[in-house]
Design brief:
Length: 327
């Protein structure tokens, strides 16, 4: 299977606010290059701010190509027999490492959304694949449940079924703009773009982490394809936004318990793709790379990520089952 070229958006290097489509909240904010950031393109910026359509089409196309072509062609299978109770489906675990040289070869400045980036570190990616019976029954979920749980209000639902996530704080959204946007020609429908701060508690003595991300969700259905969904999360440097309480430390002393503690800013990127296969089963594929930051060494992080990636399958299926029973 042919691999797709690596893109410049689905990366661990955070997007700047200048890399995002215009938003009223960006007016008069300090720009990442020292100029004033506004909703229109500034002549002082190295690249013009992308339109909403350009940004979403580029990111969604890059993410789906990564899952459909790059992952199966380049990732190494670690295990095909992982279990994640109460999910019945076995989970296949995969991994791949990108070197700094491979990331440097990406056309950062000539891609549809140009970026001024010179990566100095590699990326350790982990992925999983599972196939679930399309049924509203114990140990699995039907398509409507997958779509509602993964795509609709993704970040809020993720907080509900992930015990370590204690806050999913929405920072900004483009809801009015995406409601009027038509990306059907590119194969994407019901597209949403929102900025979130996802706060995770870690075992003592580690401080909590905040992962500031742009979250893009969409339905996918091209001609001849089955129904599907895609969820993409890419890191964003939100510290200049007043609404980003955790990234900028403005939460300290305001909330109770862990919500009032200063968070270490980590980086996280992921893509999830789910769709109904030709045999009627639901295939769910997810790939992610992360850096929890702080003094937690990367070698230690790499030991914990595979287990967490697999565990998420059971957490989601169990959460769906409880909601179905009304418990």
């Amino acid at each position: 299977m042919a691999t797709a070229p690596l893109g410049n958006l689905l990366r661990l290097h955070p997007l700047s606010l200048d890399d995002l489509p215009s938003h009223p909240s960006f007016t008069n904010l300090p720009s990442t290059n020292g100029s004033s950031s506004s909703s229109s393109a500034s002549t002082h910026k190295p690249y013009p701010r992308p339109s909403l359509s350009t940004f979403l089409t580029a990111l969604l196309s890059e993410a789906t190509a990564f899952i459909d072509h790059t992952l199966p062609a380049t990732f190494t299978v670690s295990s095909t027999t992982k279990t994640s109770s109460p999910a019945i489906a076995p989970v296949t675990l995969l991994k791949h490492a990108y070197t700094p040289a491979s990331l440097a070869s990406i056309p950062w400045s000539t891609s549809p959304v140009p970026r001024s980036v010179a990566p100095t570190a590699g990326e350790a990616w982990f992925a999983r694949r599972s196939r679930h019976a399309n049924a509203r029954s114990t140990g699995t979920a039907d398509w409507a449940e997958f779509d509602d749980g993964l795509r609709v209000q993704h970040s809020e639902k993720e907080r509900q079924y992930t015990p370590d996530v204690y806050e999913s704080a929405k920072v900004l959204d483009w809801d009015a703009e995406t409601a009027a946007l038509d990306l059907g020609a590119a194969g994407f429908h019901a597209v949403d773009l929102r900025l979130y701060e996802m706060c995770h508690k870690l075992p003592f003595p580690l401080n909590p982490r905040v992962f500031a991300v742009a979250v893009v969700t969409a339905k996918t259905r091209e001609e001849g394809e089955s129904e599907g969904l895609v969820v993409v999360q890419v890191p964003v440097d939100m510290r200049a936004l007043p609404q980003a309480r955790y990234s900028g430390g403005r939460n300290v002393g305001e909330g109770e318990g862990v919500k009032g503690k200063r968070c270490v800013v980590g980086t996280y990127t992921s893509v999830e793709r789910a769709r109904v296969g030709v045999e009627g089963q639901i295939e769910w594929v997810m790939g992610t790379a992360s850096d929890a930051g702080g003094w937690l060494p990367m070698w230690a992080q790499k030991m914990g990520v595979p287990g967490a990636v697999v565990k998420d399958v059971g957490l989601f299926v169990g959460w769906v089952g409880k909601n179905r029973k009304g418990t």
